[in-house]
Specification:
The complex is a heterotrimer.
Chain A lengths: L1 H13 L3 H4 L12 H14 L1 H4 L16 H10 L21 H14 L18 H11 L1 H4 L6 E2 L5 E2 L7 H10 L14 H16 L13 H24 L4
Antiparallel strand pairs in A: 1-2
Helix pairs in contact in A: 3-6, 5-6, 5-9, 7-10, 9-10
Chain B lengths: L29 H4 L1 H31 L6 H32 L6 E4 L7 H18 L5 H13 L1 H6 L23 E3 L9 E2 L10 E6 L8 H8 L1 E5 L19 E5 L11 E3 L4 E3 L6 E3 L5 E4 L11 E3 L5 E3 L18
Antiparallel strand pairs in B: 2-3, 2-4, 4-5, 5-6, 7-8, 8-9, 9-10, 11-12
Helix pairs in contact in B: 2-3
Chain C lengths: L10 H13 L1 H8 L3 E2 L7 H20 L8 E3 L11 E3 H11 L4 H28 L8 H23 L4 H15 L5 H9 L8 H31 L13 E6 H26 L5 H4 L15 H12 L5 E4 L2 E4 H28 L15 H20 L2 H7 L4 H40 L1 E8 L5 E6 L3 H8 L19 H14 L8 H14 L20
Antiparallel strand pairs in C: 1-4, 2-3, 5-6, 7-8
Helix pairs in contact in C: 3-5, 3-10, 4-5, 5-6, 5-10, 6-9, 6-13, 7-8, 12-13, 12-14, 14-16
Classes of the chains: A mainly alpha, B alpha+beta, C mainly alpha.
Chain lengths: 250, 341, 553
């Protein structure tokens, strides 16, 4: 399957070779087979059209998908957010409903409707090529207020939330920045260049893979978790000790 | 010493008419009765002390053997082993001493009498006498001039100790009203910290649904760049002009749906940076003040009162986004003199 | 003294003689060696505070050898990859050095932080113990005041330390402090400029907080601890109402050897606990937050737990509380946090005097109240705890919202509701529980413990066998102080002063609902009655004292 995706990505990007010279991963010209688009349309009509409309023009229940690009589809369907399980403040990440091939076909179909951000080039997803220190600065400025400095997630208004970023693939992180799913703002190539997006990916990769030097991380949630821990565990242990110490020996 | 201790008598103080039955009879412990159990506890205590020594050795060995700072794994290993060594070294002594005290030391309850906290009548009389004598000998009561001038001098003496604190900082002046933004100052992207070469922004770089964190291009011009950034940080958002509910007087403060607002919360100054691009709400992560970008960042929820100040922007002849002026309203938390200008 | 005693011959004897002739050691040993400390787990909580403070001082001293409290900028070149080349202050850089490169540095830093959290927690719970048992009453009111001072200083010590690493979290904490200071009418702006040496953040604040953190505040804490302990010696320890314990004695263990061994051993256990926590649980990973920069902020930006309630008030207070008088701002939405914090400290300080005034109780108390036997005090205390918890939880509303999939806004509405009604509900519920427990005590003292064994009497009646209490157990249930409602009294001129009217109202509030302790006559009557059954039996249905509820047969 991974091979198929690679092949597909190769196909998607061969037509957009100029992207490498313009330093843009948002290649609008995509070459996918007409068959993919046809398969994608079938999947779309069967699974998405109820909300997004027969021609992806949108309805009361879902936004128009014309011009959102393959990247948005790959993110939403690839992370299981779409198809939506139920209406709520926010679509939650869940096990994807479509396999990678079907996801790619859906993406190809939506991308064929109007130009939009494409699935990013592997070059911009490789953490090894990024600068985690630069990425850290960008992450703190652009992302940490919602997702927390180490991507543990956080609350937004009225039941919405910024999800945890641990375990999210590099490609989906890139696509989220590029397409701004749900209430997340879009970070276009002017505000965060593809290289900068890669730096952010490198930063996340570094902090997610590193051993925590000080021990168990208590969820990386900061002082609240630490305070609860000292009250329940620290003081609990202390009281246990005082009870043992002042109890009469048998 | 022994005079303080006495066996409890049961009738010392009655409560609600009930007579205190006195201490219950002492029950012997296993160690009081069985010598072999006593010896077992003796070995156990010694065992805890030996564990402590092993912990100390573990600490020293880990300290010498592991150099942290080469990799995260070594840092973790160093921290864990040093901590484990210290824990065992301390735990052994602590548990050993307490097991010893509980099982091998005398556990008969001892009673001590309480004594009056106040002095005896004699003590009090002597104390009064001493104070009287001091009053007499100093003549403080007879010489009101000395007493009153002394009180005045003592009251004034701390003033220099207060006034020296004047040197702690400059007076506010108009610093809280001014930022680096001014007519023609270009908007630069905030890439974290104080960038060496600010990256400028053009209007077409800001697309609908996007947010750009912005600082003035001349961020280095102030005395201290972080102080300037703390006032001048701005959020730039582009909103479909149909959704933007602009005050006609401020209609020219935005450019093609691009609006710029201070990022510094008007509550207590956290960066208000959580932008929801569908609801157009800005949320402060510290205290949850929520601002409506479509309505000139008026407060719609939470503890803030004032709207976020808007930075009037336009584009210059080269197409770069620039400020039209400084913020018309002071940025950041409310302060006493806020309406004096 | 040595001139009159024979020359010591053993090495220990010589050392003892040396010490005695130079500092009168024998008098100290005589005075303190056999001082009695009652043994109860809840009496060890003050020790936990003291011990964790000592540990924090020891670890903190070590940290000062390596920490640079300066805000000069440099570029990081240490082993932490995500910050390499990033511009940061010397304070932050040296904290990273301590954490990553100094052998044992991370352990000591984590011990310092865990120890500090434990210190404030232990102080808090120690004060709750003192409050709920009435140990603050005469003659210990002044020591309670010292304790209130120590609590406030522990917050100050914690907050100044939290701010030192100059990372993004602590910097945003300082920014909030700056916002609070600026809200102070008239002088706020000036205080802010003086504290920060100009505009926020400036380059002075870290070194100034450092001086406070390592010198003034610990010195004040040590001075107050010394006074606190001297008072403990002067007053001798309180004790629980148990058989053998009276207002005129102290029953327990002598300092030498038992209490010294237990207390000394306990110091090592607390030390071991903090070391163990620091070995296995990461605290305040400053490297995650990055250097302070006024533009970014992290989701979940919260203070350490003991400041959390103030942060919670800031979140709960609505924006309309800021208003303007002729253009001059009164930011009550912010000042309310300061007012509540100061008000709580003042309220705590005043409480012992208030309670003594209301109850017209000027006696010495060395035997503690069981919390149930002071229902109104206990209920007020629990109401305060609930109020505090609401404010504290308010500071983590965002995390609670995410965790329970709730709306952040709804969380704040809930906290606003609970801020007012939580304490009232807690007061009513606690008072009822206390009175219920008192009634249960009364029942048990009268009729003995329920054994759960059911007997059928020859005439067919089923009864539960009650086991009578031995006199030692019964003492605890019958011998307690139970003040009664004293209405406002007229003075010698036949007038009732306003203050006395208020005292009467408070007295009614405190003592109107009351379960009277058993009198000796009642107890003897019940025992005679129980004896009549011959088997120490009783059935609820035969209860004749009017206090119990007849059970259906």
């Amino acid at each position: 399957m991974a091979l198929a995706v690679l092949l597909l990505l190769g196909l998607l990007l061969t037509g957009g070779a100029y992207a490498m010279f313009t330093n843009s991963a948002s290649a609008n010209a995509q070459q996918v087979s007409a068959q993919d688009i046809a398969e994608g349309e079938k999947l779309f009509v069967a699974n998405c059209a109820t909300c997004h409309g027969m021609n992806a023009e949108g309805s009361e229940n879902g936004p128009s998908l014309i011009g959102v690009g393959a990247a948005a589809v790959d993110f939403q369907v690839g992370t299981g957010r779409m198809p939506l399980q139920m209406h709520g403040p926010q679509a939650a990440r869940k096990a994807p409903q479509f396999n990678e091939e079907e996801t790619a076909q859906l993406a190809a179909y939506v991308a064929s409707l109007a130009p939009g951000p494409a699935i990013p080039d592997d070059e911009y997803l490789d953490p090894a090529l990024g600068d985690p220190a630069a990425g850290g600065g960008l992450f703190r400025t652009n992302c940490a207020m919602c997702h927390n400095v180490v991507g543990s997630g956080g609350a937004l208004t009225r039941g919405k939330y910024a999800p945890s970023l641990s375990g999210v693939s590099e490609r989906h992180i890139y696509e989220a920045m590029q397409t701004g799913p749900q209430n997340m703002p879009k970070f276009n190539d002017a505000s965060l260049t593809p290289e900068e997006k890669r730096d952010i990916i490198a930063y996340l990769d570094e902090i997610n893979t590193m051993t925590a030097p000080g021990g168990f991380k208590l969820g990386s949630l900061g002082p609240v978790a630490e305070g609860l821990f000292i009250w329940f565990f620290g003081l609990g242990a202390v009281i246990g000790l005082t009870v043992w110490l002042s109890a009469r020996a048998k | 010493m022994s005079s303080k201790e006495h066996t409890v008598t049961s009738d010392e103080l009655d409560v609600n008419g009930h007579t205190n039955p006195g201490l219950p009879e002492h029950k012997p412990r296993l160690t009081d009765t069985y010598p072999e159990i006593e010896r077992r506890f003796e070995r156990q205590v010694a065992g805890w002390f030996v564990l402590s020594m092993l912990g100390t050795v573990l600490f020293i060995v880990s300290f010498i053997a592991i150099e942290p700072g080469e990799s995260y794994d070594l840092m973790r290993l160093s921290n864990t082993l040093l901590g484990l060594g210290a824990t065992l070294a301390l735990l052994g002594i602590g548990v050993g001493a307490i097991v010893w005290a509980k099982n091998l030391m005398n556990d008969h309850e001892v009673t001590e009498s309480r004594h009056d906290i106040h002095g005896s009548e004699e003590d009090r009389a002597i104390a009064v006498e001493i104070i009287k004598q001091a009053k007499e000998e100093s003549g403080i009561a007879r010489r009101p001039l000395i007493r009153n001038t002394l009180i005045a001098a003592l009251a004034l003496a701390p003033l220099p100790a207060v006034i020296v604190f004047r040197e702690l900082g400059p007076l506010p002046g108009d610093k809280l009203f001014n930022t680096l933004w001014d007519q023609g100052v270009r908007l630069a992207i905030d890439t974290g910290g104080i960038p060496e070469n600010p990256r400028l922004l053009r209007a077409e770089d800001v697309t609908i649904g996007s947010v750009v964190h912005v600082i003035p291009e001349n961020i280095h011009d102030g005395d201290h760049a972080l102080d300037e950034k703390a006032k001048a940080a701005v959020l730039l958002m582009k909103i479909d002009p149909d959704e933007l509910n602009e005050d006609p007087e401020r209609a020219d403060w935005s450019y093609d749906g691009i609006v710029a607002y201070s990022k510094i919360c008007t509550h207590v100054g956290c960066p208000v940076a959580l932008y929801e691009h569908q609801t157009h709400h800005l949320l402060c992560p510290c205290h949850q003040s929520t601002f409506d970008v479509t309505d000139h960042c008026k407060v719609i929820f939470g503890p803030a009162k004032r709207p976020l100040p808007q930075l009037p922007i336009t584009v210059d002849s080269e197409g770069y986004l620039v400020a039209q002026s400084d913020f018309p309203d002071p940025v950041g938390p409310t302060f006493w003199e806020i309406n004096t200008r | 003294m040595s001139t009159t005693t024979p020359e010591p011959t053993t090495a220990v004897g010589k050392a003892a003689d040396w010490a005695d002739t130079r500092m009168g050691a024998s008098k100290l040993v005589r005075e303190f060696g056999r001082k009695i400390f009652p043994s109860h787990w809840s009496f060890m909580l003050g020790e936990v505070s003291l011990y964790s403070f000592i540990i924090v001082v020891l670890t903190g001293t070590y940290l000062t050898f390596f920490f640079y409290p300066a805000m000069g900028e440099l570029h990081y070149d240490g082993p932490y990859v995500p910050l390499q080349g990033v511009e940061m202050s010397q304070a932050y850089q040296s904290t990273l050095y301590i954490s990553f490169e100094l052998r044992g540095g991370l352990l000591i830093r984590q011990m310092h932080h865990w120890g500090a959290l434990l210190f404030v927690a232990a102080v808090s719970i120690h004060m709750l113990r003192v409050f709920f048992t009435g140990a603050f009453r005469r003659p210990r009111e002044l020591n309670w005041l010292v304790g209130v001072g120590l609590l406030a200083l522990s917050w100050a010590a914690g907050f100044t330390g939290y701010s030192l690493p100059d990372d993004l979290l602590s910097g945003n904490g300082l920014r909030i402090i700056d916002g609070i200071i600026k809200a102070i009418p008239l002088v706020g702006t000036y205080i802010s400029f003086f504290l920060f040496g100009g505009e926020f953040p400036g380059i002075d604040i870290i070194s100034r907080l450092y001086t406070l953190h390592i010198m003034i505040i610990p010195a004040a804490i040590i001075a107050l601890i010394a006074i606190h302990l001297i008072f403990v010696v002067v007053h001798k320890h309180t004790q629980w109402p148990q058989a053998g314990n009276t207002e005129r004695n102290v029953v327990g263990e002598p300092v030498l050897p038992t209490f010294a061994a237990k207390g000394g051993g306990f110091f090592f256990l607390v030390f071991a606990l903090i070391a163990g926590l620091s070995a296995f649980f990461q605290i305040n990973p400053v490297w995650n937050y990055g250097p302070y920069d006024p533009s970014p902020v992290s989701a979940g930006t919260q203070p350490d737990w003991y400041i959390g309630w103030a942060d919670g008030i800031l979140r709960i207070a609505p924006g309309w509380m800021e208003f303007y008088i002729f253009g001059w701002p009164i930011s009550m939405n912010i000042l309310v946090a300061v007012i509540i914090m100061v008000g709580v400290l003042v309220g705590m300080a005043v409480w012992p005097f208030f309670e003594a005034w209301v109850a017209k109780d000027n006696r010495e108390h060395h035997v503690l109240d069981r919390p149930r036997n002071a229902p109104t005090r206990t209920a007020v205390g629990v109401a305060f705890v609930v109020w505090y918890l609401v404010m504290w939880a308010g500071a983590s509303g965002d995390l609670i919202a995410v965790f329970f999939h709730m709306s952040l806004n709804d969380m704040i509405y809930i906290f606003r509701f609970l801020f007012f009604f939580g304490p009232i509900i807690a007061y009513i519920v606690t008072k009822r529980i206390c009175l219920g427990l008192q009634r249960k005590d009364r029942e048990v003292a009268l009729h003995g413990r329920e054994t759960g064994r059911i007997l059928r009497l020859p005439h067919g009646e089923f009864i539960e066998v009650h086991e009578p209490l031995d006199p030692h157990s019964a003492w605890r249930l019958v011998a307690f102080d139970s003040p009664e409602y004293v209405p406002a009294q007229a003075d010698e001129n036949g007038k009732i002063s306003t203050a006395e009217k208020w005292r009467g109202r408070f007295s009614k509030f405190f003592f109107e609902d009351r379960v009277a302790p058993l009198s000796k006559a009642e107890l003897e009557a019940a025992h005679a009655h129980n004896e009549g059954h011959g088997h120490h039996l009783d059935s609820e249905g035969n209860d004749q004292d009017g206090q119990g509820r007849p059970l259906p047969h």
